[in-house]
Design goal:
Elements (H helix, E strand, L loop, with lengths): L1 E4 L2 E4 L3 H12 L4 E4 L4 H6 L5 E3 H9 L4 H6 L1 E3 L2 E5 L2 E5 L1 H5 L3 E3 L2 H14 L3 E3 L3 E6 L7 E6 L2 E6 L2 E4 L7 H4 L6 E16 L8 E6 L2 E9 L2 E8 L10 H13 L11 E15 L2 E2 L2 E3 L5 E2 L7 H22 L3 H4 L1 H23 L7 H16 L1 H12 L9
Parallel strand pairs: 1-12, 2-3, 2-13, 3-9, 6-15, 13-20
Antiparallel strand pairs: 4-8, 5-8, 6-7, 10-11, 11-12, 14-17, 14-18, 15-16, 16-17, 18-21, 19-20
Bound molecules: flavin-adenine dinucleotide and 3,4-dihydroxybenzoic acid.
Length: 397
């Protein structure tokens, strides 16, 4: 049995856990990350790609932005396409803020390397992780590492272990309210070796369903397609993916989709979910362990970073100065941004997707919303403000 002690025990080495670890390190607070998967697995997990201005700034502030600033692609706008008609939303012009395309797995790679270069303790391939005594001043993370049991005693535990982790189920069920909203669709995601068809993202709604064109580099594109919720990736041959993409993105327009090798493909479920409060005792949830959004608004990774930014400040105040107010109000303060992102992601999802359940009224109402967004500056500005992300000052007070 190995007994260890740290100030903050972090469960999960995704964007939330790694950023928290770096923020705490810079504040001089000792922390250990306990991660179920291997380093290679974490670094290869293809997911999000869009960083809000606030996230870009935060990554730079903590010293993790060197490669991101070299390889990331700054975007000033997005294209919305409704039934083949293109409309540009000038995000920069409407908000003064940019977004950046830089793969989540690149952020994860950069932060694992950075933390390890600073001598961080990241325990990959931890098995049977469980939490004990979250109500006490000395909560413990139990797990097995390299075949030996480990007890990690902490002052605070940060549950950064994603939607399927063990942290959220460790909260007493009678103390939390779970808000859950599944959607009648999924997304097929494909990573392809082909140059971007356009220099900005294209969100395209057609009678065949939604498609999103995005990218990872000048030679690699990332493509998403709305699918039925019960479909599995075996239902989606490469040929079917290309044919649907042609129909939903390229068909009848100036776009000729460059084709290339399919490097990776998978299906993502779509749901909106919030756990309130995001804390109990000395366990604090951050990122996907506390809330998830459908990917349409590109908010998940950004929210995860916003949570830990707040958690790090609150933990510092407590561990250095004995002031608990920030920790006690952590969830309450996070939830303003979380629910703004929830509403926006739900709204973007409703705007862009084809719903089998829609009756004639629903279809006309959706059409009206689409017309409004591309013909009213006020509507476009609302979309742009949410898409670029609310500034930190918006929910600071
Ligand atoms: P995760 O990234 O899930 O990390 C959790 C970590 O905890 C993992 O490393 C996991 O292995 C580990 N773990 C799990 N269980 C345990 C355990 N029991 N013990 C120890 N460790 C454990 N967001 C955006 O902001 N922009 C986008 O453009 C965007 N696009 C997306 C597209 C798709 C297709 C998908 C699926 C998601 C997208 N998201 C996007 C969402 C984004 O990927 C997530 O919100 C983000 O990964 C959340 O980070 P996290 O650190 O909270 O959780
Ligand atoms: C990406 C994913 C999204 O869901 C989105 O809305 C924008 C970009 C991406 O993977 O690049």
């Amino acid at each position: 049995m190995l007994r260890k002690r740290t100030q903050v025990g972090i469960v999960g080495a995704g964007p939330a856990g790694l950023m928290l670890s770096q923020l705490l390190y810079r504040a001089g607070i000792d922390n250990v990350i306990v991660e179920a998967r291997s380093r290679a697995y974490c670094e290869a997990r293809i997911r999000a790609g869009l960083l809000e201005q606030g996230s870009i700034d935060l990554i730079n502030e903590v010293g993790g932005g060197e490669r991101m600033m070299r390889e990331g692609m700054i975007h000033d706008g997005i294209e919305l396409r409704f039934d083949g008609h293109s409309h540009r939303i000038d995000i920069k012009g409407l908000t003064g803020r940019n977004v950046m395309i830089y793969g989540q797995h690149e952020v994860v790679k950069d932060f694992i390397a950075l933390r390890l270069s600073q001598g961080a303790d990241i325990m990959f391939e931890a098995e049977g992780v469980r939490l004990e005594g979250i109500d006490t001043a000395k909560p413990v993370i139990h797990f097995e590492h390299g075949g030996s049991p480990v007890e990690l005693e902490c002052a605070i535990i940060a549950g950064c272990d994603g939607f399927h982790g063990i942290s959220r189920p460790s909260l007493p069920s009678e103390k939390v309210t779970l808000y859950d909203h599944p959607y009648p669709m999924g997304w097929v995601g494909a990573l392809v070796e082909a140059p971007p068809v356009h220099h900005e993202l294209i969100y395209s709604a057609t009678s065949h369903g939604f498609a999103l064109f995005t990218m990872r580099s000048p030679t690699v594109s990332r493509l998403y397609l709305q699918c039925r919720p019960d479909e599995v990736i075996e239902d989606w041959s490469d040929e079917r993916i290309w044919s649907e993409l042609d129909q939903r993105l390229a068909g009848g327009t100036r776009y000729e989709l460059p084709k290339g090798a399919m490097l990776q493909k998978g299906i993502t479920e779509m749901r909106s979910f919030v756990c309130e409060p995001m804390q109990h005792g000395n366990l604090f949830l951050a990122g996907d362990s506390a809330h998830i959004v459908p990917p349409t608004g590109a908010k998940g990774m950004n929210l995860a970073l916003a949570d830990v930014r707040r958690l790090a400040l609150a933990a510092e105040d407590y561990l250095k100065h004995g002031r608990r107010e920030g920790l006690d109000t952590y969830s309450q303060r996070c939830l303003k941004r979380v629910w703004r992102a929830q509403h926006f992601s739900w709204w973007m999802t409703c705007l862009m997707h084809t719903f089998d359940s829609h009756n004639a009224f629903d279809k006309r109402a959706q059409q009206s919303e689409r017309d409004y967004v591309v013909s009213s500056e006020a509507a476009a500005r609302t979309l742009a403000e949410n898409y670029a992300g609310m500034p930190w000052s918006w929910d600071e007070s």
